[in-house]
Amino acid sequence: MIDSLLFELMVIGILGIASQWVAWRFRLPAIVIMSIAGLLAGPVLGLMNPEQDFGELYKPIISLAVAVILFEGSLNLDFKEVRGLGRPVFRIVTFGAFLSWILGSFAAHYVAGLSWAVAFVIGGLFIVTGPTVILPLLRQAKLKPRPAKILKWEGIIVDPIGALLAVFAFEIIEFILGTNVNPSALFMFFLASIFAVILGYGCGKGIGWMFETGYVPEFLKSPMVFTVVIACFTIADEVTHETGLLSVTAMGMTLANMHISSIADMRHFKENISLLLISTIFVMLTASLTQETLLQIFNFQTIAFVLLMLFVVRPLSIFLSTWGTDLSKSEKLLVGWIAPRGIVALTVASYFSSILLEAGFEDASILISITFALVFTTVVAHGFSISWLAKKLGLSTEGPPGVLISGGSQFSTGLAKTLEELKVPVLISDSSWERLSSARSRGIKSYHGEILSEQTEYYLDMTPYEYLIAGTELDSYNALVCTTFVPEFGRNNLFQLSLSDQEGDNLEDLVHTIGGRILFKEGASWEELNTMVENGYVFRKTNITEQYTYQKYLTNIDDAALLLLIKKPSGKIEFFSHEIDHKAETGDVVVSLTPPSKEFERIQERLEEQRHEKNDE
């Protein structure tokens, strides 16, 4: 066992972030890796047991972390996003959740062998999915916008509803069994839920008003938001347990739909905090499990219950609740399969296990085992199957990494056409129809609109694109585009054209802190690149083989040619830039912008002479 609490915190943090990195590096579900890391550190090797080591601080830490994660997730719930999806989403989070509760409760009673009282409590809890598991899976799977939005909205909205259903079921049980014969208790529960929603709405409106009117300086905005989130959660939770989750969800949704620029600016910072919390909290939860809990998972009744939840309860509740909506069969199949449970299910199950045992329900002793069995099974099954199933159903945008080019021009069009020929998804974005005319005339996919506009994310699906090139004639605009999209693409995948060599421009000192990487080794500017294209330079693709090596290619290439990029057999693209000197290998394709051939030059000269002759006549 680890003796130092500080050292244990360090180990938990390292395990969580290392799990995220391994998952990213090998394209694995992050939640699965974190679960395995926690199990190895906890019940398997016995290195730590955070629940015992942290003592009374353990549950408040978990609760506050869940509140922040849920708030961050609810900041993405902009009603504009569900245009055309309002009906299926509403049906899933209401009728679908109710069906899942009833069917799950019957399964818990008849299959898992739980009493009716415990079954209805756990049935309400098991309708949750939650942002802690859904959002990482959506990042990994690259789903099309419709199914991705449905799963995201369901996960975030149903999270507090599931916890409240469990509390409601417990209140009903106490009332029916006579342990708390007080009709006002149920009435107070509903009042507490309404109070939580009003509190969250009020906090959201209050923060929004203060930000819009300038009552909060920029450096205090993030700390203030987090402080209010914790206060909002704690006050509601003190009134009635688990209503705090409802309160922070209401607060997040309120702020999301106020469209305040300050909140949008902070979103990426909060996403980083949320990622850190998910990484550490999931490790803490799994490391706190005991070996006895793990052994109980392999009980036949537990296994049968989990399989029933996966293959009957979830699909049936989705199909029935979305009957008559415009969801396709493929979308229903995907949504009906994907329902991983996460942190909220584990934390609330732990709370109700002790409460129900105190109330005399001895079968509640296996609640944590059943919950973890469902959590781990769904995380593994759905984590490893979501990408495969989405591809099979035609709901995935998975494919070779694409390129998004901001700025229409002759050079952009030529580069985009070359990438298309290499089977690379490409799109040119510009706010001017005139600058997009060459791309449209050659059949290249384009987007007419301001890429920096808030509305862009609602109309332009950026999921297929992993690289962004800011290719306008304005250096400052290119730098702004790259800086804006750092959180989405990562700085290594953002590129901009070389800074214009104009008198008065002195932006070279800024390229290390703002903007993207400067494109192309030789550093050609927008003017130079488009002049080259106008003068007949061609985009040439050269295959590197064992016989025709990259070294031979460099020896033979024209001195005036400009190396643009290397396309790997895996689909990865390496753009030549100031910072990195790439080397092509066997199987790679090198794209360059090369001068016209002598024959082409002769034709051009002949055409020029003919034009002069006509003018003389």
UniProtKB/TrEMBL annotation:
<feature type="transmembrane region" description="Helical">
    <location>
        <begin position="272"/>
        <end position="290"/>
    </location>
</feature>
<keyword id="KW-0813">Transport</keyword>
<feature type="transmembrane region" description="Helical">
    <location>
        <begin position="215"/>
        <end position="236"/>
    </location>
</feature>
<feature type="domain" description="Cation/H+ exchanger transmembrane">
    <location>
        <begin position="22"/>
        <end position="392"/>
    </location>
</feature>
<keyword id="KW-0472">Membrane</keyword>
<dbReference type="InterPro" id="IPR038770">
    <property type="entry name" value="Na+/solute_symporter_sf"/>
</dbReference>
<dbReference type="GO" id="GO:1902600">
    <property type="term" value="P:proton transmembrane transport"/>
</dbReference>
<feature type="transmembrane region" description="Helical">
    <location>
        <begin position="89"/>
        <end position="110"/>
    </location>
</feature>
<dbReference type="Pfam" id="PF00999">
    <property type="entry name" value="Na_H_Exchanger"/>
</dbReference>
<keyword id="KW-0812">Transmembrane</keyword>
<feature type="transmembrane region" description="Helical">
    <location>
        <begin position="333"/>
        <end position="352"/>
    </location>
</feature>
<feature type="transmembrane region" description="Helical">
    <location>
        <begin position="364"/>
        <end position="390"/>
    </location>
</feature>
<dbReference type="InterPro" id="IPR006153">
    <property type="entry name" value="Cation/H_exchanger_TM"/>
</dbReference>
<feature type="transmembrane region" description="Helical">
    <location>
        <begin position="31"/>
        <end position="48"/>
    </location>
</feature>
<dbReference type="InterPro" id="IPR003148">
    <property type="entry name" value="RCK_N"/>
</dbReference>
<feature type="transmembrane region" description="Helical">
    <location>
        <begin position="185"/>
        <end position="203"/>
    </location>
</feature>
<keyword id="KW-1003">Cell membrane</keyword>
<dbReference type="GO" id="GO:0015297">
    <property type="term" value="F:antiporter activity"/>
</dbReference>
<keyword id="KW-0050">Antiport</keyword>
<protein>
    <submittedName>
        <fullName>Sodium:proton antiporter</fullName>
    </submittedName>
</protein>
<feature type="transmembrane region" description="Helical">
    <location>
        <begin position="60"/>
        <end position="77"/>
    </location>
</feature>
<dbReference type="GO" id="GO:0006813">
    <property type="term" value="P:potassium ion transport"/>
</dbReference>
<keyword id="KW-0406">Ion transport</keyword>
<feature type="transmembrane region" description="Helical">
    <location>
        <begin position="6"/>
        <end position="24"/>
    </location>
</feature>
<dbReference type="InterPro" id="IPR036291">
    <property type="entry name" value="NAD(P)-bd_dom_sf"/>
</dbReference>
<feature type="transmembrane region" description="Helical">
    <location>
        <begin position="116"/>
        <end position="138"/>
    </location>
</feature>
<feature type="transmembrane region" description="Helical">
    <location>
        <begin position="150"/>
        <end position="173"/>
    </location>
</feature>
<dbReference type="Pfam" id="PF02254">
    <property type="entry name" value="TrkA_N"/>
</dbReference>
<feature type="transmembrane region" description="Helical">
    <location>
        <begin position="302"/>
        <end position="321"/>
    </location>
</feature>
<dbReference type="GO" id="GO:0005886">
    <property type="term" value="C:plasma membrane"/>
</dbReference>
<feature type="domain" description="RCK N-terminal">
    <location>
        <begin position="403"/>
        <end position="485"/>
    </location>
</feature>
<keyword id="KW-1133">Transmembrane helix</keyword>
